[in-house]
Amino acid sequence: MIRRLLDHLPEKLLALLAAGLVWYQLRASEPIAERTLTRPLQVLGVRQGQSVSGLPQTVELRLRGPARLIEGNNLSTVNAYVDLSGVGEGAFVRNVQVGLPAGVRLVAVEPGRVEGRLEAVVSRRLPVEVHSPGHWLHFEPASVQAIGPRGLVDQAVRAVGVDIGGAQVRLFPVDATGEPLESLALNPDQVRVVQREVMQAQKAVPLVLAEPPTSLRVLEARVPSSVTLVGPVAVLASITQVRAVPEWRPGSYTSPLQLQLPQGVQATAPVQGNFRVAAR
User: Fold this and answer.
1) Got the DSSP string for 167-233?
2) H/E element holding 237?
3) Rounded to the nearest 5 degrees, what angle is found at the Cα of 278, between the Cα atoms of 274 and 280?
4) What is the reported pLDDT for 22?
5) Helix (H/G/I), strand (E/B), else coil: 79
6) CATH code that applies to domain 30-111
7) 8 A C-beta contact, residue 168 and residue 140
């Protein structure tokens, strides 16, 4: 067996060398390509109860290597990451690291160095404020828990929502200027409407006396110049004057005034006038 392997050994070694030279020449002449990829920036080494902010969502990679490796789906394993193992709470600067398959070289990564902030995740209770134009709103709970990075939680002053007539109102955390803090979570993130009542307001408006019948002539009419109304805010806003209709008849008398008002609006007190009327 050994003799058979050793037979024609020089010729076999020469053939093996020739094959190696051909393989090397083929590899040396293999076309080289470049490719640009966008990859999400992964964050490693963050412990439970910590939050990272300020980092870009993605990075751009420029890669170089044999065309057979660069083209197609051969780069699906390429990843970009920063490792925050051992980083303490506060600001940090880290280089972006890239995982590449064998034979592929990293030409450039943008950005290659990133800045961010590592903070503890904390919670704090916020009072709830719900805007319900034209209504008094009773809701529960009166406060909710804000959860997020310490810096954002410290900025939050209240949770606000806008009532649109449903059984529940969605809440959003805001800072002292009213700007929303979108990265904060609320628990719960909505309140339940227990009762909704129309908000009542008062408004004084001019009183306009209705014209008498053509068969009567008004000699004297003494009526208030204005009347105070109570009703829903939105309805009162549309009223600029009120038409008053007395009992028209010949003679001198005091008559209550019938006010022509929209539904849900009434005067705060009865209104009357003194009249002296004659037949034509």
Assistant:
1) SEEE-EEE-TTS-B-TT-EEESSEEEEEEEEEPEEEEEEEEEEPPPPTTEEEEEEE--SEEEEEEEH
2) helix 233-237
3) 145
4) 47
5) strand
6) 2.170.120.30
7) no
C-beta of residue 271 within 8 angstroms of C-beta of residue 246 = no
Element (H, E) at 157: none
> In the β-sheet with 97-99, what is the strand arrangement from edge to edge?
97-99, 79-83, 32-44, 58-66, 105-110
CATH class given for the domain over 121-198 = mainly beta
For the domain 200-279, what is the CATH superfamily, name and number?
YbbR-like domain (2.170.120.40)
Give tens-digit pLDDT for 125-140: 999 999 988 788 899 9
Residue environment code for 101-110, b if the CB has 16+ CB neighbours within 10 A, otherwise e:
eeebebeebe
pLDDT band per the 50, 70, 90 thresholds, residue 23: very low
